[in-house]
Amino acid sequence: MAEIRVMREDLLPPKEPPRRHLISIGDLGRDDVERLLGTARNFERSLERELKKLPTLRGKTVVNLFYESSTRTSSSFELAAKRLSADTMSIKSAGSSVDKGESLKDTALTLGAYDPDVIVIRHPQIGAPQLVARYTNAHIVNAGDGKHQHPTQALLDLYTISEELGRIEGLHVAIVGDVLHSRVARSNIQALALMGARVTLVGPPPLIPRGIEAMGCEVSYEIDAIKAADVVYVLRMQRERMAEGANFVPSLREYTARWGVTPERLRPGQKVMHPGPMNRGVEIDPVVADAADALIEQQVRSGLVVRMAVLYDLLTHGPAGVQAAAVHEIGAA
Ligand code: ASP
Questions:
Q1: How many percent of the chain have pLDDT more than 90?
Q2: Which of 159, 249, 290, 299 is the most exposed place for a label (fewest CB within 10 A)?
Q3: CB of 133 within 8 A of CB of 314?
Q4: What is the pLDDT of residues 200-215, one digit of tens each?
Q5: Peptide bond into 277 cis (omega under 30)
Q6: pLDDT of 296-305, one tens digit each?
Q7: 236 lines ligand 1 (CB under 6 A)
Q8: Ligand 1 in reach of 275 Cβ (< 6 A)
Q9: From ligand 1's centre to the CA of 184, what distance in Å?
Q10: For residue 205, what is the enclosing H or E element?
Q11: Which residue in 138, 91, 102, 103 sits closest to 119, CA to CA?
Q12: Are 271 and 265 in contact (CB under 8 A)?
């Protein structure tokens, strides 16, 4: 009888590298962020051409799975995938089997049966993206999980700041408002600190989590503190995340009077950002939202190219290859 021998490790074919996901800004190092912003810049140039579609992800499938409302994030992921020639499918919880009580695990197993390359997921519960990663073979992009993380929002904000102000390192960004319920704030604090910006959180004490300075930021309870910043980043009052009956602020009117970002509270030349959707007249005065120094529409534009860069980066393994191939594909298109 032939002898069965176990092959030595080094004689086995090389193992597949682990699937890459983007679940948190904590998944990224400074080099990764610089690479992604560089790829987004290349894509932005490619969109200036008449023919906006690139063949880069032809044959790949991107599924958008949204369990919470979204305008900007879902539309920009869909357009980003289309601009790269991927096939896309968008599933919203309303009108899907989720309405009939299907669990996230079963939805993931169902969608996984189509072998998607990427699943973009937004879900009200922290950890939902990891669960989908466990039950499918797709690369997962977190498009917002509860109040935890929204990494592509932070990346598009970094991109907007660096395009508008020429740098991120050394800038001072004031993040104002409902930090407590905000995944945007958490992702941005991490991302800005990673890239060497100074971050000050400004808002009423009940909306600023205690001990958040440990993330590498400062805290001020005085609205006047925003005057010192280069960029004022306004957060939405997230009423849907506030527990019923909990009084985080006495009233919205009071909040606006004390914490609303108005022209009088700003210094000329300060840039203003907001992740959207805005509550005009609550956290941001309409005059500020429509002023020339507001970067809110630029943020939306950045969202498209940054999400193209994220999809591209996840599907092409490895930093060096990413940049080389991006230039090659764009040049060839
Ligand atoms: N659109 C952002 C998010 O999904 C911000 C917001 O909703 O206030 O987190």
A1: 77
A2: 290
A3: no
A4: 999 999 999 999 999 9
A5: yes
A6: 999 999 999 9
A7: yes
A8: yes
A9: 7
A10: none
A11: 138
A12: no
